[in-house]
Amino acid sequence: MADSSISKFFEKSLKERLDLVADFSGLSQDELKIIEDATGGISYDKADSMIENAIGTFSLPLGIATNFRINDKDYLIPMVIEESSVIAAASKAAKIARIHGGFKAKSEQSYSIGQIQIVNVDVQSAIPKVIGASTEILNLANSKSNTLSKLGKGAKEVSCKEIQTDSGHMLIVELVIDVGDAMGANVTNTMCEAVAPMIEELTGGKSLLRILSNYSTKRMASASAVFDKDAVGGENVVDDIILAFQFAENDPYRAVTHNKGVMNGTIAVANATGQDSRAIEAAAHAYAAKSGAYRSLTKWAKDANGNLIGDFELPLSVGIVGGIIQHHPIAKICTKILGVSTANELSCIMAAAGLAQNFAAMRALVTEGIQKGHMKLHARKEGKN
């Protein structure tokens, strides 16, 4: 079985690092050449086909976090990030988590939420009409995706809610769509636009916005781990980490910085695999405020043996088919390095990376302070200039 616990990976040469990653992931020589290419994997022509008004490309560092064991499987985790110490910290955290079996993670479904806004309508009389026509609405939505229908996926549920605004009452019709291994934005938007005229006819109202929600609460991912008290630095350090968590849990000024650190891990993996990082960030921070106050995305406690227990949960919309992955060779190669076979598996990895990074940051904060590691790596960078 492949082992992600690689001793002194940071001391190895580029060739040695690439050889280890290639052996672990089965990368070809052509794929290794793409990684080594200083353009970051895409030419100007490719960039020009992806965005408007292109004038060039912009590269960020791509690194590998080692030591990760998630659900009893080892991973080398590609991370794209410009910030010093994140990859080293995540790798060290994963090494400590391995003592008690690594990370346990879950991501059980890939349901996207599409919304159709109906205005100029009697909401209370419209809702039963829409619900009564659910089968017809779902059939029409599913006619817009042969691929999902053949896989037994697609639009599964219609629901309605009323919202009150300064402009009056509005009806929001929501489609729940199983998008499988895709991020699903395009198919969700297509289905919403397709059913909007039928909903207008049913309700007598006017459809305005017809678009997915990035608050992907039906695509939850979670990760947990036990961090050995002795490897953490003793039970006093465990207690201090819990106190640091309580600070973030009860003060939004600390919580924002705390959660930024969590997302250093999750978003670095998102960047490497071509995910919509803006959507992921927006959903995560909305979830942090679900109680009405902005709080920590992670939870920390102590078990009966004095070990530190960490939990992380967030709405996480990701895909391994379609989107940037089919256009960007580096994103495709990074997905291959991970060896994931489903979007749910990728979600588990991203959640574990976020939890690892949060542990590492808090441990540094309550012991040596965050600057020692940062400054050491900054000095290393300056020495290379």
Explained architecture:
Helix content is 48%, strand content 21%. The protein is α+β, with helices and mostly antiparallel strands and 385 residues long. It folds into two domains: 9-106 and 220-384, 3-hydroxy-3-methylglutaryl-coenzyme A Reductase, Chain A, domain 2, CATH 3.90.770; 111-213, Hydroxymethylglutaryl-CoA reductase, class I/II, NAD/NADP-binding domain (Alpha-Beta Plaits), CATH 3.30.70. It has a four-stranded antiparallel sheet. It has a four-stranded antiparallel sheet with strand order 5-6-4-7. A two-stranded antiparallel ribbon has the order 1-2. The longest helix has 24 residues, at 343-366. The model has no long low-confidence stretch (mean pLDDT 94).
Key words describing this protein structure:
single chain; 385 residues; 3-hydroxy-3-methylglutaryl-coenzyme A Reductase, Chain A, domain 2; Alpha-Beta Plaits; 4-stranded antiparallel β-sheet; 48% helix; HMG_CoA_Rdtase; HMG_CoA_Rdtase_cat_sf
